[in-house]
């Protein structure tokens, strides 16, 4: 006997027959003695169809009216599923987000959940009914009942939030694949099913493009210790468990709106090695990091910035003890990384042994562009200059002068109201994990580069704050290592990626702001893709990034940008190379298997 929350995605409820099959599965769970709350998505691709209708009327529809429209999709499914259950003799009732009392912030089309009222749900459960709840929606105020939606793919988040609010025994996410696979099986046909994955890994994978789970759902599961499993709607296979350590108890108020940042991490045992003006051609990163791995040097942060002409800058960090050896590798290797065979001097190698890395982490920053900007502003206000910046949706890391570290930590902990935590993620896992758990591809990114940004504290903060004010989320931010003197002012280039839909706005907006900020031109490239590897097992294991770069080099794929965090490595490549790149790295880490996943249409 338990309380189970089940969620069925669009394909799983895409037709009357499928809704009837879902009803059978629900009844089997109920007959096993469980109480059930069932969350459903809109049927098939009906949310897309509604978006299309809106666009036919307006190029830029009001977000409030969009929510009004999109929330109808789920309402169709809840009523049909309840009817199907009743038809089979199972008492059931359908409820919208408003009827349940799923209270969100007043942010149309991307609202986060404040809290969920459980009284009405409990009452119907006690009456022996299966409660069928509309996913993806809530209301922003109990008086006006303003309908909000949680953002595309948000039904997963509704389900996990309900499981947390009801303290359910488990949350089962039913979808059109057998669980979480090593890659999207639509792109990599020999992707394999995992029996389990940690929340930390899944959070990275989901935010890097594996849309099988909404990243915010993973965050709630991690914060509240919800037992989550992803399974197929069409088979009895046990699927993939998403595991996390038992969390500290936390209040059910502000479910998603607690702190945007979970932790401030720092590492003072870091030294930075930078190579300036490295040739921009396939295989370069592979050779350099391959050699470092050969020498058993564990590289932490790797950043490759945009190129100017036909050269790149590559910077990486290692422990202080490894700095000399890393420098020797970089220097010895230099001439091989030059643009032409005639150049014997090789790229310039710079080593800085007095640096520290500070990071902020937390899924609360997803979709909140102001958070990274707030980190930069906080550091700028403390007069701290940022050297390397590397970001993902759930992590922002900067290197700074070692002497600034204490002040940086104090300022960040205060700004984000958190304690500074351990220097590293803990690799302690229930089972030993492979270095790379899965790979992901994000095709919806565009790259922007701003040339010649004056190198003074506060400028990165200023730029990203302005973008945040336009509600543009910046994903991978890379500040170049190389500095240049423009009319006597030291400048650096900054490159970053944004969602493709935001690229035009970002370009127009930045181009206008440029003269005022004293920067050079802004360049945009939408024909890019981001490929990533994720795995807890890469913590403390040298050579993983090198292996990824090698796989890309073997396919003659040029790497445009590199950014790493502790458990992931992402590379920006040309869009035309994206799927080849994804398959190549999937194969290189031995993730392929014999069993092919069938995906129903
Ligand atoms: P639902 O409608 O059930 O929420 P989604 O379409 O949102 O389903 O998510 C399931 C899809 O996610 C799969 O059909 C698959 O194409 C895609 N996907 C991407 N990455 C992965 C992965 N690593 N494992 C499984 N599925 C993935
Ligand atoms: N129906 C919504 C969408 O298509 C929510 C969901 O399916 O998770 O985005
Ligand atoms: Mg989904």
UniProtKB/TrEMBL annotation:
Protein name per UniProt: aspartate kinase
Domain ACT intervals: 273-352, 360-428, 448-524, 533-601
Gene Ontology CC terms: cytosol
EC top class, as a word: transferase
Enzyme Commission designation: 2.7.2.4
Keywords: Amino-acid biosynthesis, ATP-binding, Diaminopimelate biosynthesis, Kinase, Lysine biosynthesis, Nucleotide-binding, Repeat, Transferase
The organism's place on the tree of life at top rank: Bacteria
């Amino acid at each position: 006997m338990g309380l189970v929350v089940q969620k069925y995605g669009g394909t799983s409820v895409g037709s009357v027959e499928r809704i009837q099959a879902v009803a059978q599965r629900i009844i089997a769970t109920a007959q096993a003695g469980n109480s059930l709350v069932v969350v459903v998505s809109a049927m098939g691709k009906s949310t897309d169809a509604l978006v299309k209708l809106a666009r036919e009327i307006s190029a830029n529809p009001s977000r409030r009216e969009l929510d009004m429209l999109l929330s109808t999709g789920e309402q169709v499914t809840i009523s049909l599923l309840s009817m199907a259950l009743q038809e089979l003799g199972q008492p059931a009732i359908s409820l919208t987000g408003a009827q349940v009392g799923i209270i969100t912030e007043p942010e149309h089309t991307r609202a986060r959940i404040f809290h969920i009222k459980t009284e009405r749900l409990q009452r119907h459960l006690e009456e022996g009914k299966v409660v069928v709840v509309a996913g993806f929606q809530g209301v922003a105020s109990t008086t006006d009942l303003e309908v909000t939606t949680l953002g595309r793919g948000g039904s997963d988040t509704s389900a996990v939030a309900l499981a947390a609010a009801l303290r359910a025994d488990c949350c089962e996410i039913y979808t059109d694949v057998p669980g979480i696979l090593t890659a999207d099986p639509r792109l990599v046909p020999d992707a394999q099913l995992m029996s389990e994955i940690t929340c930390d890994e899944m959070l990275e994978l989901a935010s890097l493009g594996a849309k099988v789970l909404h990243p915010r759902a993973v965050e709630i599961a991690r914060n509240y210790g919800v037992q989550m499993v992803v399974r197929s709607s069409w088979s009895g296979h046990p699927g993939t468990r998403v595991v996390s350590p038992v969390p500290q108890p936390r209040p059910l108020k502000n479910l998603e709106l607690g702190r945007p940042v979970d932790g401030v991490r720092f590492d003072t045992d870091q030294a930075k090695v930078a190579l300036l003006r490295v040739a921009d051609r396939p295989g370069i990163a592979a050779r350099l990091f391959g050699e470092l791995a050969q020498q058993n040097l564990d590289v932490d942060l790797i950043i490759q910035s945009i190129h100017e002409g036909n050269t790149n800058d590559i910077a990486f960090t290692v422990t202080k003890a490894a700095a000399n050896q890393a420098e020797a590798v970089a220097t010895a290797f230099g001439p091989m990384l030059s643009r032409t065979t005639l150049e014997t001097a090789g790229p310039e190698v710079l080593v800085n042994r007095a640096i520290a890395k500070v990071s902020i982490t937390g899924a609360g920053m997803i979709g909140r562009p102001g958070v990274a900007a707030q980190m930069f502003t906080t550091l700028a206000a403390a007069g701290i200059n940022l050297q390397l910046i590397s970001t993902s949706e759930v992590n922002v890391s900067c290197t700074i002068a070692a002497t600034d570290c204490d002040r940086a930590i104090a300022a960040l902990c205060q700004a984000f109201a958190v304690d500074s935590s351990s220097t590293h993620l803990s690799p302690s896992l229930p089972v030993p994990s492979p270095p790379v758990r899965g790979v992901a591809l994000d095709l919806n990114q565009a790259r922007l580069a701003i040339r010649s940004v004056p190198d003074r504290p506060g400028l990165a903060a200023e730029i990203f704050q302005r973008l945040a004010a336009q509600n543009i989320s910046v994903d991978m931010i890379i500040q170049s290592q190389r500095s240049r003197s423009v009319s006597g002012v030291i400048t650096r280039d900054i490159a970053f990626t944004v969602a493709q839909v935001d690229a035009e706005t970002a370009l127009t907006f930045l181009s206008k702001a440029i003269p005022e900020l004293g920067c050079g031109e802004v360049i945009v490239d939408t024909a890019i893709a981001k490929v990533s590897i994720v795995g807890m097992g890469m913590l403390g294991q040298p050579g993983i990034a090198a292996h990824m770069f090698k796989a890309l080099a073997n396919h003659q794929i040029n790497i445009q940008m590199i950014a790493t965090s502790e458990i992931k490595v992402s590379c920006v490549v040309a869009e035309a190379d994206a799927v080849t790149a994804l398959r190549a790295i999937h194969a290189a880490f031995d993730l392929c298997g014999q069993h092919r996943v069938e995906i129903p249409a």
